[in-house]
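Per reviewer request, we include the raw input and output of the structure prediction for the construct analysed in the revised manuscript.
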Amino acid sequence: MELTASYLPAEEGGYTVEVLEARGVYSQGDTFEDARANLHEVVALMLEEAPDQFGTRKAKAPPGALLEKLFVLLPR
């Protein structure tokens, strides 16, 4: 499965991040690296607990967002 993470600098500092192809898969961090690590944990948890959240939407990234492709291998 291919996902897109959208990182946006927060006004108060740090980053917020969401998966554009999923409902309710968000995270944040004080640095880009923290936000990225936190998102990877959230994605792993959501794939285990609520896999139906993925593939339900394709949101557009907000202006100024940094994008990252995530490739997830799902068990058969």
